[in-house]
Amino acid sequence: MGGSFQSGYHITGLSSPSPYIQRFINSSWYERHKEPPPAHTVTMIWSLIVSMYAVGGFFGAISVKFFSGRLGRKKAMIGNSVIAIVAAGIMLTSKRANSFEMIIVARILFGFSAGKANETYSISPRKIRGAVTLTLATFMSLGKLSGQFFGLSEILGREELWDIVLCVPACFSVVHVIVLPFLPEAPRYLFIEKGDDKACKKALQSLWGTGDYKQEMDEMLIEQAAIEAAPPKNPLQLLRDRTVRWQLITMSLIYCCNQLSGMSALFFFYFIFLNSTHIFELFPSQGLLIEFTGRRPLFWGAYGVMSALLGDSSYWVPYITAGLIILFIIFFCGGPGMSGASATLNSEIFIQSDRLAALVLMGIQRWLLFAVLGLVFPFLINGLSTYCFVLFACVCLLGCFYTFFLLPETKGKTLLEISEEFKAITLCHPNTAATDSYI
């Protein structure tokens, strides 16, 4: 609730109060300059308010490795929540101060907090790590839904409350700051990075219940030995490391496919479809399905279905548009979709020494794609009209082929086994002899 939920909320929460904020920009400008602002000035200021969230997320993603490595996972999450609270305070003050600049600053801080959000992988047991990490995608979707729900005029979507509707997620940040100090640190951080096996065992018992957890600590010991042979890398070192090249290619391609799959084009309409079709009833099935089927079928199957559903050449397609959109959303962020599977993959294919640097790189890519798509998509609509979805279909088809032929299955395997399977990939197909030795 302090990470992906808030990120999702701030993506959609700005759409409902947008006319009120633009009127606030007009009134603020008039009070200062005694004349109404030009239309292009209002548009420029509004564009800054929207895009600065992605800029803040970019810098937050860059800082993940520094804060998580220096402070640990728990303290970094507490600091993250404090930043969100400060941003909410600035946002609430902006209306009284009659300053649209403060809205921009608050959006930057909200984005920084979202870009610096930490992972839940390191505190989850291996058997259910997919289901636990999947909650990131689930709460992201719930955050997007909540952003539009609280923006309804019957709730908080009124002109006198636009500053409050943008600060709703800060309530969860306050809860985080109060509760997190009483929770244990991430076991992997304690054992691998701090070398404190007693604190690690105590944290495991606190999180998972009583037990000796010898098997889990032995796995951490093996991973620690691998890390000592290869110390933690910074992002540039990770980019130059050929042993993780396929992991980086995989995550980069999947992040690109997620952003360029066409979901953003449906974004402003999905709230109506979700409410009318009860699609959120599918969410409890995500964790069970991802552990039952594995990751590869969810990736190539979802990309394949999404690319097919983006077709528009048959005469009967206009009559089932609503059904196609619903199916597309299901495969992206409902039950058997690549959005849920991708939420778990980043934490499963990089060992501890590479993970923070990988999170930085993937975060940078995610926020840059987010910003670029927001700028370019209106021009695509003007230039290509509905044919822009042909580009999205090609992207989904690329994701389907790549994940079907090249992505190794990660279900039920250790990080080192997964790493070795990626090393065994050749230019065209996996080295089956090397892969089979680890299954």
UniProtKB/TrEMBL annotation:
InterPro entries given in the database record: GLUT (IPR045263), MFS_dom (IPR020846), MFS_sugar_transport-like (IPR005828), MFS_trans_sf (IPR036259)
Looking up Pfam families in the UniProt record yields: Sugar_tr (PF00083)
Q: Name one GO biological process term.
A: D-glucose import
Residue ranges annotated as transmembrane are: 44-64, 76-94, 100-118, 130-150, 162-183, 248-273, 316-335, 356-381, 387-407
Q: Tell me what topology the record assigns in the membrane.
A: Multi-pass membrane protein
Query: In which compartments does the protein localize?
Result: Membrane
Specify the Major facilitator superfamily (MFS) profile domain's residue ranges.
1-411
Q: Which UniProt keywords apply?
A: Membrane, Transmembrane, Transmembrane helix
Q: Which PANTHER family match?
A: SOLUTE CARRIER FAMILY 2 (PTHR23503), SOLUTE CARRIER FAMILY 2 (FACILITATED GLUCOSE TRANSPORTER), MEMBER 9-LIKE 1 (PTHR23503:SF130)
Please give the name of this protein: Solute carrier family 2 member 9, like 1
Q: What is the species listed in this Swiss-Prot or TrEMBL entry?
A: Lates calcarifer (Barramundi)
